[in-house]
Amino acid sequence: xxxxxxxxxxxxxxxxxxxxxxxxxxxxxxxxxxxxxxxxxxxxxxxxxxxxxxxxxxxxxxxxxxxxxxxxxxxxxxxxxxxxxxxxxxxxxxxxxxxxxxxxxxxxxxxxxxxxxxxxxxxxxxxxxxxxxxxxxxxxxxxxxxxxxxxxxxxxxxxxxxxxxxxxxxxxxxxxxxxxxxxxxxxx
Length: 188
Fold this sequence. Notes:
By secondary structure, this protein is mostly helical. The protein has helices at 2-26, 52-60, 64-73, 102-106, 127-132, 140-150, 152-155, 161-177, and strands spanning 45-46, 83-84, 93-94, 110-114, 117-121, 138-139, 159-160. It is 46% helix and 11% strand. A three-stranded mixed beta sheet has the order 5-4-6. α1 (2-26) runs antiparallel to α6, α2 crosses α8 and α3 packs across α8. The protein starts with a helix and ends in an 11-residue tail after the last helix.
């Protein structure tokens, strides 16, 4: 089971690396206000699959239990459980920026089609600049479809970001931690 989870995680991470390269090539950077993160979790949707790389990282780094406890307490009305404000961490932002989900990576690097309009997927501070570069932005839907192609079951249902994170931890926990046979001494 570990091999399958690692395989899925690598496929998701490959998409993330590709998006990071695209975003870097745009040459547009945010002002660091973190307003996109500092919102209720129900405003940010993700899938369980998007959090597989982070869930595996938490298992491997021994942080699983503490983050699982935090995720269980986080509600859709709360901020993203991974968001840390400047009062706790000087630079603020995401606790695990390297493992942030697809929606966070697509923000300020992509566009969405709504009815007959093409709109940049960005904050109000970057919208004007990105609109000038619309021809260099990527179609967000394409990347959601690529996630679906990796594993339709894990990528089909979008949830608020806190629920998606918690469910990814539950999924990995059940597959890895609960399926590990206990080490019992042999009877003599």
